[in-house]
Write a structure and sequence with these properties.
- The chain has 3 helices and 5 strands.
- It is α/β, with parallel strands linked by helices and 110 residues long.
- A 3-stranded parallel beta sheet has the order 1-2-3.
Length: 110
């Protein structure tokens, strides 16, 4: 499960994710969840020349954090802390995974 949060404090994503894990674990089924979270500010989205890239990078970051939670045993939450170059990935419908984007030549690098 990926959670992409907009305009929350740095501590909130982990709390949100852990609450989701707990709620799913308490269901009357033998199921747990691995949750990945990432944040992006509304200001960052609004200021970007490529809003789609900012949003897809946040989704990609949450996805990477989710897989980290799975690799660490599952039924837990991991939060991705943004890096400056996170916006260089996009979802590929062909490969069904996040792929690196080629460097843009029409705008400054991130």
């Amino acid at each position: 499960l990926d959670v992409t949060a907009v305009d929350v404090s740095e501590s909130e994503p982990l709390t949100i994710g852990q609450n989701l894990c707990t709620a799913i674990e308490e269901l009357p089924f033998p199921i747990t969840a691995s949750v990945g979270t990432a944040c992006v500010s509304v200001d960052e989205i609004a200021a970007s020349d490529d809003r789609y890239a900012v949003i897809t990078a946040a989704i990609s970051a949450a996805d990477a954090a989710m897989y980290e939670a799975k690799r660490n045993g599952g039924n837990q939450t991991r939060h991705h802390h943004a890096q400056q170059n996170d916006h260089h990935r996009a979802w590929s419908p062909t490969t069904q995974r996040w792929e690196a984007l080629p460097p843009r030549t029409d705008s400054p690098s991130w």
